[in-house]
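From the methods appendix. Each design record in this collection lists the discretized structure first, followed by the designed amino acid sequence. Records were kept in a plain field format so they could be parsed without special tools. The example shown here is representative of the layout used throughout.

RECORD:
C-ALPHA CELLS (151 positions):
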C-alpha cells in the first residue's frame, strides 16, 4: 500500500484498522470521534448493565480500557503499531452511569522505540475525570500512515 497523503483518507483508514477490534468496538462500543496527526478523541457512552461494579458505579477498569484504547488510536496517527508499557491514571472524579465519557490525547514524544502520550478524560459537562500518561513500545509500523501529516 502506498503512503496516504489525504487527511480524510488517513482518518478513515485508522477507523478501518480498529473496526475488527472486538474489545473496543463490540464490547465497549468505543467511538473514535476525532483523529489528527498526533492526537485523537474517543468516547464511550457508559452502560450501567455492562460497566457498573457491585456498588453501582462505573468500574475503574472501564476507564482504564478507554484510556488504553485512545493511546493505541493516537499512536496509529503517527504510523505506529504499539503495545502499552505503562499507563498511569490519576482518578479525579467518576461519572454518572449512562453518561458519555470523552478522552482526548496527544503524542508528546515519538521515538523509534517508544511513544509518550498524555490524555485527559472528561465527563459530558467537560469536567476533568482523570489525567493520563502512557508510554507505548513501538512494535511495528503502519507504513501507509506518515509520521507527520496535516490535519
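DESIGN:
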Amino acid at each position: 500500500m502506498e503512503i496516504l497523503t489525504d487527511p480524510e483518507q488517513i482518518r478513515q483508514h485508522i477507523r478501518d484498522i480498529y473496526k475488527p477490534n472486538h474489545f473496543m468496538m463490540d464490547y465497549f462500543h468505543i467511538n473514535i470521534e476525532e483523529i489528527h496527526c498526533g492526537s485523537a478523541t474517543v468516547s464511550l457512552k457508559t452502560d450501567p448493565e455492562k460497566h457498573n461494579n457491585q456498588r453501582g458505579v462505573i468500574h475503574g477498569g472501564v476507564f482504564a480500557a478507554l484510556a488504553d484504547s485512545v493511546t493505541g488510536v493516537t499512536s496509529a496517527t503517527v504510523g505506529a503499531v504499539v503495545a502499552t508499557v505503562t499507563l498511569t491514571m490519576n482518578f479525579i472524579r467518576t461519572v454518572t452511569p449512562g453518561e458519555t465519557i470523552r478522552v482526548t490525547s496527544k503524542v508528546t514524544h515519538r521515538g523509534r522505540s517508544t511513544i509518550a502520550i498524555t490524555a485527559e478524560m472528561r465527563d459530558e459537562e467537560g469536567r476533568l475525570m482523570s489525567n493520563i500518561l502512557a508510554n507505548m513500545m513501538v512494535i511495528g509500523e503502519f507504513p501507509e500512515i506518515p509520521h507527520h501529516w496535516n490535519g
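APPENDIX NOTE: Residues 60-76 form the longest helix (17 residues).
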